[in-house]
């Protein structure tokens, strides 16, 4: 991985993040306005594998992809801070990655501005709340009691639907799926029908499983037998 100090700074128009190029036809007033609106991007680091950049962005958990520009240097993909609402006043801090056109390297850039918003927008259940919910689930605490305990611990309380979904995922993780197929039942019967070496271990003496197609086949055979008997009686 190459250190970012070797990469030059980059300027873009803050409105659409296009490259800044001084055109002869632009007057001084327009040029000054563009200079005020442009953003300075500071290179953070350069990666030889783009998957490393993607992982770093995902692990951060605060960046959402907005758009992509094709430049002479390569493709630039921009990300905004998702701690504020998309339609609200945007956070001045953002990042973008440059996929170099001349090689496979990827450089990550960051604006020189910091986060200016006071409140962060949480997504999903707070991690500390998740850990407490998991412990309460293992203790078989009723779901109605969980929000009260979180409040007592001064932890963020998730929405009712979020809590329900998380508890369902915990049940599946610790106890498996809530439904079972006929094939799974038959496999369980086969595993437990062998006589164990331990005399105190229970085992399945006999079982019978009939699938729907087999039942229908038996019914057809029975109907055929009845028809034959009717023909004989005639």
Automatic annotation (TrEMBL):
<protein>
    <submittedName>
        <fullName>Uncharacterized protein</fullName>
    </submittedName>
</protein>
<feature type="compositionally biased region" description="Basic and acidic residues">
    <location>
        <begin position="223"/>
        <end position="234"/>
    </location>
</feature>
<feature type="region of interest" description="Disordered">
    <location>
        <begin position="214"/>
        <end position="234"/>
    </location>
</feature>
